Structures are given as C-alpha cells and as structure tokens.
C-alpha cells in the first residue's frame, strides 16, 4: 500500500464500501480523465487489489465471502430499499423461508408489524431479530454457526428446510453471472449455438445446496440482489434468474 498514490488508496476504499465503482463516477469524483482512472485501475488489478469489470472496477475475485460485519455496512441504503419492497409484498399468515446474507437479515428486521407468520431460517442474525417478535413463529436448524457469516450451512440445514413447505422462499446470492449455455442446432446437426443466461451464484457449494433446498420446497421463489451483485463473481450455481417468480433489485 505504501507505493500507491493517495488517489489509488481512495479508489480501494470506495470499492470496499460499494463493491463496484464505475470509471466515469471515479473520474468525476477525483476530477481527472477516464484515461487516468483506467491507468490507476490497471495498476491496482495487477497488484490483485481490485478486479476490472466492463466500465468499472470491483472487489478482487475470492473463493470466500467477506465478513458479515463488513458486508452489513456495504450498500446499506440500497439493501433497505429492497427490504422495504420485499416486506410490503409478504402477506400475513404466510410461511417463509429466509436464506443467508445481510439483505435477508434486513428483511427480518422489518417484519415486526406482520402477524401469524412462520419463518424458517438458517440465518442466525435474522433468527435473533425475529425472536423478539411475539407474533412470529421462528424455526432454526441445529448445526455449527459460521462465525464469519453468522449462519448455518451444513447438511443439517439442507435437510431441515426439506421438512417444511413454504409459501415464499427468499434467498440472496453472492453474485449474478452470465453463463454460456451451448446446445446443438436441431436443423443443422453440424452446428452449435451459444446462449448466455444469468445465474444466481454462491461462493461455496454448501451455501448453494441450502439455497437450492429453500427454492425446492417453496411455492413462490424470490431473489434479493442489490446492483453490486451484477458486478461480482462467484463460482457455484444456484439457479437461473428465470427460475425465480420475483427478483428484487435496484
């Protein structure tokens, strides 16, 4: 970090706060040209401190998630707006599945005025909040709580969701990624066409398995993902976006 310019250090701070910054926004903020910002970003990417995206820069690729505390303060306003929209759409008397993540915990905080809800969740923060609401019945799986993520994602959680049937299952994701899908042309058997399809992705297979269990046992399947998720990379498939009944984003 000692060899970085003050502007480059500031870019890193902004990326960690927002998860993604566009080149044009950075150029305006620092009152320099977009070419100057691109040079800064190229150097930061070479050092592995950031990851270049089309039109901007984001967090470096990682096989694991950042800490819950770090994610909790990122894009707070966006998550609150999404949470308010989701909660408004949840009817009283419903059985809900709530998955992992800080946006899901934000949704739980806003359910205080709902009545006759049954909530099944492996999100420890969401469960802690819901435990204070007498009008909500809350169920959690047994298992080891991950200290970094404050959730349970081992096999017991996957099996636990399979014992219920939910009206609505709500999950978040680590990222939304366009994945190439190849298929043979039935008219011309010698050719193959390539289509891309956006998928909700997670960092780890066990996280993805629990999210799949939530979706498989839910009548309505909802995804929450703020705009930064479209700029982040994760490597484990959960489901294509067209599998969801509703996608809440900004």
TrEMBL record:
<keyword id="KW-0678">Repressor</keyword>
<dbReference type="InterPro" id="IPR036390">
    <property type="entry name" value="WH_DNA-bd_sf"/>
</dbReference>
<dbReference type="InterPro" id="IPR014036">
    <property type="entry name" value="DeoR-like_C"/>
</dbReference>
<dbReference type="InterPro" id="IPR036388">
    <property type="entry name" value="WH-like_DNA-bd_sf"/>
</dbReference>
<protein>
    <submittedName>
        <fullName>Glycerol-3-phosphate regulon repressor</fullName>
    </submittedName>
</protein>
<dbReference type="InterPro" id="IPR050313">
    <property type="entry name" value="Carb_Metab_HTH_regulators"/>
</dbReference>
<keyword id="KW-0805">Transcription regulation</keyword>
<dbReference type="InterPro" id="IPR001034">
    <property type="entry name" value="DeoR_HTH"/>
</dbReference>
<keyword id="KW-0804">Transcription</keyword>
<feature type="domain" description="HTH deoR-type">
    <location>
        <begin position="4"/>
        <end position="59"/>
    </location>
</feature>
<dbReference type="Pfam" id="PF00455">
    <property type="entry name" value="DeoRC"/>
</dbReference>
<dbReference type="InterPro" id="IPR018356">
    <property type="entry name" value="Tscrpt_reg_HTH_DeoR_CS"/>
</dbReference>
<dbReference type="Pfam" id="PF08220">
    <property type="entry name" value="HTH_DeoR"/>
</dbReference>
<dbReference type="InterPro" id="IPR037171">
    <property type="entry name" value="NagB/RpiA_transferase-like"/>
</dbReference>
<keyword id="KW-0238">DNA-binding</keyword>
């Amino acid at each position: 970090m000692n060899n970085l310019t003050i502007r480059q250090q500031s870019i890193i701070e902004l990326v960690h706060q927002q998860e993604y910054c566009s080149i044009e926004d950075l150029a305006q903020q620092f009152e320099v040209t977009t070419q100057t910002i691109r040079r800064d970003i190229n150097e930061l990417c070479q050092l592995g401190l950031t990851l270049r995206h089309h039109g901007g820069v984001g967090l470096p690729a990682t096989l694991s998630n950042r800490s819950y505390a770090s994610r909790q303060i990122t894009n707070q306003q966006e998550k609150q707006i999404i949470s308010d929209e989701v909660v408004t759409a949840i009817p009283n008397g419903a059985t809900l599945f709530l998955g992992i993540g800080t946006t899901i915990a934000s949704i739980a905080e806003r359910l205080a005025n709902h009545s006759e809800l049954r909530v099944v969740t492996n999100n420890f923060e969401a469960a802690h909040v819901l435990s204070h609401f007498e009008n909500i019945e809350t169920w959690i799986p047994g298992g080891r709580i991950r200290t970094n993520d404050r959730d349970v994602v081992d096999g017991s959680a996957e099996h636990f969701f399979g014992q219920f049937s939910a009206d609505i299952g709500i999950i978040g994701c680590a990222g939304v990624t366009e994945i190439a899908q190849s298929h043979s042309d039935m008219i011309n058997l010698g050719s193959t066409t390539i289509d891309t399809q956006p998928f909700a992705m997670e960092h780890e297979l066990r996280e993805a398995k629990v999210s799949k269990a939530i979706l498989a046992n839910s009548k309505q399947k909802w995804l929450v993902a703020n705009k930064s998720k479209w700029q982040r990379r994760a490597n484990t498939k959960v489901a294509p976006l067209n599998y969801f009944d509703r996608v809440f984003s900004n």
